[in-house]
């Protein structure tokens, strides 16, 4: 089940602060004119195979950013639900441990 559900979603590694397309640190720096911040979260797109490998071989936390209803209908084992359409979405992401690696879908 883990693999078939993972195949149906696009997974993103790292933290994001909205439901919009993630940017890399370098893209964000270029757009804002700021120098790269080494403490900023690194966001990296991964394909299904890459995500499966990370989940199998790494100590990652799976973030499911769908609505609670969607989450209840089925989710990856051990996933944490943070609803990206909720008003406190950015606040909840900000409370995550920045020293951990997250796979978000």
Describe this structure in words.
- The protein has 105 residues and is of the alpha/beta class.
- The chain has one domain.
- 34% of the residues lie in helices and 16% in strands.
- A 5-stranded mixed sheet has the order 2-1-5-3-4.
- It starts with a helix and ends with a strand.
Which structural class should the secondary elements be placed in? Answer: alpha/beta
Which strands sit side by side, in order, in the main sheet?
2-1-5-3-4
Report how far the terminal alpha carbons are from each other. 16 Å
Order of helices and strands: HEHEHEHEHE
Largest sheet: 5 strands, mixed
Mean pLDDT: 75
Low-confidence stretches: 1-34
What percent of the residues sit in helical stretches (DSSP H or I)?
Answer: 25-40%
Number of helices: 5
Oligomeric status? single chain
Number of domains: 1
Shape summary: globular
Q: What fraction of residues sit in β-strands?
A: 15-25%
The Rg value, from CA coordinates, equals 14 Å
Total beta strand runs: 5
């Amino acid at each position: 089940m883990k693999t078939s559900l993972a195949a149906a979603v696009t997974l993103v590694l790292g933290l994001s602060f909205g439901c919009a397309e993630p940017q890399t640190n370098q893209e964000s720096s270029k757009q804002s004119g700021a120098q790269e911040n080494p403490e900023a979260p690194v966001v990296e797109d991964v394909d299904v195979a890459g995500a499966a490998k990370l989940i199998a071989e790494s100590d990652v936390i799976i973030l499911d950013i769908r609505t609670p209803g969607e989450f209840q209908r089925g989710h990856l084992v051990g996933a944490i639900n943070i609803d990206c359409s909720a008003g406190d979405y950015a606040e909840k992401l900000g409370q995550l441990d920045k020293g951990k690696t997250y796979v978000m879908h």
